[in-house]
Amino acid sequence: MTARDQVLDMLIDYLGRPISGEAISRQLGITRQMVWKHIKALRNDMAIESKPNGGYCLPTLPDVMSPAILKRLGVPNIALLDEVDSTNMEAKRRVSDGAGDNFAVVAARQTQGRGRRGRSWVSQPGQGLYLSIAMRPPVDIAQVQKITLLAAVSVCAAIKKWRPDAPLRIKWPNDVLLNGKKICGILCELISDLEGSTWVVMGIGVNLRLPEGGFPEELRGKATTLDTIAPPPIRLQLAADILGYTTDYLDSWRDDFGQVMEAYRQYMPAAGCALRVLPAGQAGYDAAFAGVDDDGGLLLERDGKVERIISGEISIEGMDGYV
Ligand code: BTN
After folding, report:
1. CA of 206 to the centre of ligand 1 (A)
2. What is the mean pLDDT of residues 117-140?
3. Which residues 6+ apart lie within 8 Å of 206 measured at CB?
């Protein structure tokens, strides 16, 4: 750990209370002048108050990728990276290299953030949360597609913990919408480790703020950011909460998937609303939303009959830029 991280660590230990430059210098064995230099550098990324008696005080947890914040939040098992090609690719590399236990990766920035259907995911620093959770699924592999629904419910629960009144919807299977526009995308991928066990990598991107220059043309009117309703939570708090809900829902899934589906249905659009179904590589068609069954399949009404689909994408009338 660098001296700068150690200074931050101490400020976080004293969160909301002042600590003197003298005490920091004594504890870390560095000069007062060095303490001041580190405080000055830290101030580029966070607000640190100077108290009249010469103490420094961090009023709230800063939005930086610091292990000290994870320690404070009580979540040790997240790998923090400043920059990576894609947290999903990184998680898959770690699985291939023999990761032992389930783990998570968060990056401040992705250079090749990946979305579904080969799309890219805008991943500028500070603009979003880029999180991948890698796990051995607790259930038979035949059921594993349900995990994407579980991820969407976990994200909704974490956002609701921050803002209980956030107007959230899930667009099947797993896009989370805020005020009818996409706030979060989820990309789940399967990979086998050296011993042949299957892992799931659950990649979650949450839009916190607009990227520099705004969203690209194709996302305008379709995507939104958490800061449109309130100042967003710090990324590691959101990551810790998503991870916590994911763990709880995975535990409940060992018995049955009912608890996840019950939560999922709270966020579904109204029955009967108009949909456009977009199967991969085929022509789209219109239908009406008829629900999601207990196995996570989408039910839709078409020509007076109820059909079930298990893959593909939909647009919902009035949401996600679809009118
Ligand atoms: C989608 O197309 O809706 C899925 C987007 C998933 C983006 C996240 S960001 C973290 C993780 N790493 C990636 O490269 N993609 C996922």
Report:
1. 9
2. 92
3. 128, 129, 131, 155, 159, 176, 183, 184, 226, 238
